[in-house]
Specification:
heterodimer; A: 8 helices; globular; B: 492 residues; mainly alpha
Chain lengths: 221, 492
């Protein structure tokens, strides 16, 4: 297979992850957010598998499998179940209007392209562009965490950010420990969410709106 | 791995002991036995870490020891050990007051050792990726510990900690990936391009632009974990709401580990002549942490929050010193790291005893300690005066070195530094007099047993730390000074 084609495919998949990152920003329903996130994770799994293929690095198939099983299936299903079970608001509460969020998002993508492309002049075209895409996904994930108030959407934002990190790691040719890193992230999310918060937060707050978490603003003497 | 290789390389032993204990303590019923075992294994780890000074193992692909991290390993295991002693007394009283169930305590002891393991792994890892995984795991264990009490505030604190520090370490991972990409053309694919011991010799050939970009991500990422303003928001909550022994190791050890990670990367950047100087950014963040926390110290109403802000202040001073760079400022930064660890964990031992003796964390209800609890009150007094920077204690010496080395090179920067230190000093001194003197507050009622033994388990480590800080202020042994100088040169 020509290297041009494999480059194009990698580029296409990476761009799909980024587009999914954007579409996370304008969802108004929690379930739609979860579905979009599952789609993004699916695209990430495809990206990892494709990198495993073109870099001839079989361990990346593990990363792809983790993305597929854990992020694209297990987490969205579990969050879906929790939202239903706990009767959380089904609408996304925004701290910044969707229009503004999209504008900031576009600016962030422009920023990451302008930052990454000049400094990676020596690297291969594939690495450069994957890195720019990955950094955009990371920044969009952060934006989502900042502008969405619900705990579920914050977690989804964090995992979208993490998708960008994994995309960067799989695109860095020959980077060791990518599998371990993706496992570490999965454990962090799984333990924190299901071990602690979702089963406890309900008894304490009766809502997953993080505004409740912010009522206690430090202390005043 | 055979048992022989475990003893041949003390590093493996130092890591294996806490890891195995974490597993064992998770299944061991009965908190009494667990808290003693916790002390024993922490002590074994400390002794094992001392053997590193006598015999330093060769770097392997995974682990290495050099002049820099050997001292942090010793410090970490020492404070881990003394905190485990304090923890035994603390836990006994919490359990007697039925504030924590047996299952929670089993989980607590297991996580304590797991946390020590992750910190030691982060310090000794010879691989940027392994170090990252270890710092991430340390975040996970501490998030779980902060939420231990399950109160509304504890869960809020843990949630904030999880969200902010996860994003922080996420960004640090991006920076780590960028450093790998910068190194890869020189070092080739694979683990070599992530090994500290190999990277440092070749750093001059890496792509400088990529390193610059990477450092921004690493500074923001690991800087969140260090608690540098404006990324510090998780720190006071996490310190205030978790169990007090955890506040002690968070302040005394985890912040150091995060700063260590940052400094390792700074060494790489500094070894490359074409990169931007990382110093000014660190100086700026250090100063802003110092000022922010100085003013925040004035308004605190909660004793644990008060000292959490004081930790932000001191991490700011260290970051400032390392940002200034040069042998003298680095020396001061290293000394300050040690002194702050010892003093601040000692203060949290006192705070733990105070909150249990008086049953409150509110500063305005904590009064007259020298009357009601003289041993505790005066211990706290010395420790707080030390942390505020009074001579002759060790913190004064390191702060004095930071200030004087700044005066010598950048007099204009010394001015805000001195002002910031004075603000923090004034705030702490005012708070301290309120706590020490006057009539004991009428609402005070302690919880847990009042057994003398449990009490001395808290006072003993407190006085030990205080004594060390006072002695270090009066007399630093010559080998220690020489060795700080060597490390200060390494840091560039």
């Amino acid at each position: 297979m020509g290297s041009q084609l494999s480059y194009d495919i990698a580029h296409l998949i990476g761009a799909t992850v980024l587009m999914a990152g954007f579409s996370l920003l304008y969802q108004r329903r929690v379930f739609a957010v979860l579905n979009t996130f599952a789609f993004q994770a699916l695209a990430l799994a495809a990206a990892a598998a494709w990198q495993a293929h073109i870099q001839n690095a079989p361990h990346l198939y593990f990363t792809a499998a983790i993305a597929l099983l854990f992020k694209a299936l297990a987490v969205p299903f579990a969050l879906h179940w929790l939202v239903e079970k706990l009767g959380i608001h089904r609408t996304v509460e925004t701290a910044l209007s969707i229009g503004w969020t999209m504008i900031v998002g576009v600016a962030l993508v422009a920023l990451s392209i302008m930052l990454v492309l000049p400094v990676t002049a020596a690297a291969s075209a594939l690495t450069r562009e994957s890195l720019a895409l990955a950094m955009s996904v990371v920044l969009l994930g952060m934006l989502m965490m900042i502008t969405r108030r619900n705990a579920v959407t914050q977690v989804v934002g964090f995992m979208a950010l993490e998708n960008g990190l994994i995309l960067a790691a799989v695109s860095a040719k020959g980077m060791p420990l990518v599998v371990e890193i993706s496992i570490a992230f999965s454990v962090l999310v799984a333990m924190t969410l299901f071990g602690i918060f979702f089963f406890r937060i309900r008894e304490r707050f009766d809502s997953l709106d993080v505004a409740y978490l912010e009522s206690y603003r430090g202390d005043r003497s | 791995m055979t048992l022989d290789s475990l003893f041949a390389n003390p590093l493996l032993l130092i890591l294996a002991v806490p890891l195995a204990s974490a597993g064992f303590l998770a299944v061991l019923p009965g908190w009494r036995l667990a808290s003693w075992l916790n002390i024993v294994v922490s002590g074994v780890t400390f002794v094992a870490s001392l053997t590193l000074f006598a015999h330093r193992p060769e770097p392997t692909r995974l682990l290495f020891i050099d002049d820099f991290n050997v001292y942090l390993v010793a410090l970490t295991t020492f404070v881990g050990f003394t905190t485990s002693i304090f923890s035994a007394g603390y836990i006994a009283r919490e359990s007697a007051a039925a504030r924590l169930s047996d299952l929670h305590l089993r989980f607590y002891h297991s996580m304590y050792q797991a946390f020590l393991f992750t910190m030691l792994l982060a310090l000794t890892a010879n691989n940027t990726g392994v170090m990252w995984v270890a710092v991430e795991a340390a975040t996970l264990t501490t998030v779980l510990m902060v939420s231990l009490y399950r109160s509304r505030e504890a869960i809020e604190a843990a949630w904030k900690y999880f969200i902010l520090c996860s994003v922080g370490i996420g960004l640090a991972l991006f920076g780590t990936t960028l450093v790998y990409l910068a190194a890869q053309p020189v070092m080739g694919d694979g683990a070599d391009a992530m090994a500290w011991s190999l990277l440092i010799g070749q750093a001059a050939k890496f792509q400088p632009d990529l390193l610059n970009l990477a450092f921004v991500f690493l500074l923001v990422g690991y800087g969140t974990k260090v608690g540098l303003a404006p990324l510090h928001a998780w720190l006071p909550d996490a310190h205030a709401e978790g169990p007090t022994p955890i506040s002690a190791v968070l302040s005394g050890l985890l912040l150091n580990v995060a700063l260590y990670a940052l400094l390792r990367f700074k060494m790489l950047i500094a070894a490359n002549p074409d990169t931007l100087a990382p110093g000014p950014l660190m100086v700026l963040m250090g100063l802003s942490s110092l000022f922010l926390s100085g003013f925040m110290l004035m308004r605190r109403g909660d004793i644990k929050r008060l000292f959490a802000y004081s930790s932000i202040e001191h991490m700011g001073v260290m970051t400032f010193a390392f940002g200034m760079g040069g042998p003298l400022a680095n020396f001061a930064g290293l000394l300050h790291m040690t002194m702050h660890s010892l003093t601040k964990s000692g203060i949290f031992f006192a705070v733990g005893a105070i909150t249990q003796n008086l049953g409150t964390k509110r500063l305005n209800e904590i009064t007259g300690l020298t009357v009601s609890h003289p041993a505790l009150g005066w211990g706290l007094a010395v420790a707080v005066l030390a942390i505020a920077g009074m001579p002759p204690m060790g913190v004064f010496m390191s702060e004095f070195l930071v200030v004087s080395s700044t005066f010598a090179r950048q007099p204009l920067l010394a001015l805000p530094l001195i002002v910031g230190l004075l603000i923090a000093f004034a705030a702490l001194a005012t708070r301290l007099t309120g706590m020490l003197f006057g009539e004991p507050h009428p609402g005070q009622r302690g919880h847990g047993t009042n057994s003398a033994f449990a009490t001395w388990l808290a006072y003993g480590p407190l006085w030990l730390h205080v004594a060390l800080v006072v002695v270090a202020g009066l007399y630093l042994p010559a080998p220690l000074v020489r060795w700080f100088e060597t490390v200060a040169k390494m840091l560039g």
